[in-house]
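Q: Could you predict the 3D structure of Cytochrome oxidase complex assembly protein 1?
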Amino acid sequence: MNTMPEGNMAPRQGWWGRNWKWVVPVGCLTPVLMCGCFGALGLYFISSAIKSSDAYQQAVALVSENPEVQEVLGTPIEFGFPRGSVNTDSGEGRASLNIPVEGPKASGTLRVEALSVGGTWTFERLEVEVPGREPIPLMEPPMDDELPPGLEALPDEEAPPMDLGEEPLPPEEERLPPPDEETPGKRGSEIDL
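A: Sure. Here are the predicted structure tokens for Cytochrome oxidase complex assembly protein 1:
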């Protein structure tokens, strides 16, 4: 005789049979989430390295202090995620950056091109581009005493013409022989056929 009720006699499902509905999504999403986390961590470290560079910090300081940029963007000015590169090696390097800038009135992009020689950054391009208006330059043109060695500033007034001691050329009819006469002593470039 069977003393157990029939409902308890059904075979019990295995672990996979009971849990597959949550194992499959978790198993697929875990690698995707891990890749996303590693990517975000990589971007954070790259952004931190760019933001800690002298080129970035000097450019941001110049933008923050510029009255024309403050007037156009408003204050406070916030800086977004920098895009570009900063390469340095033994005090020499190159920076090429595009940095989003935003204020209460407008937003734009800070464009930076700089060279480092001996640990000192020199900006080749430093301007804020705001849609709908001319770029705002943040660099002053070099003064006469700041020109690189070997270059001289152009004079403000026109120099007088130089006298080379040459006589003026005779009128054209005096330079050419008449067409009917033979020219004595042909030159080497002339060919007689």
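Q: Anything worth pointing out?
A: The first helix runs from residue 15 to 51.
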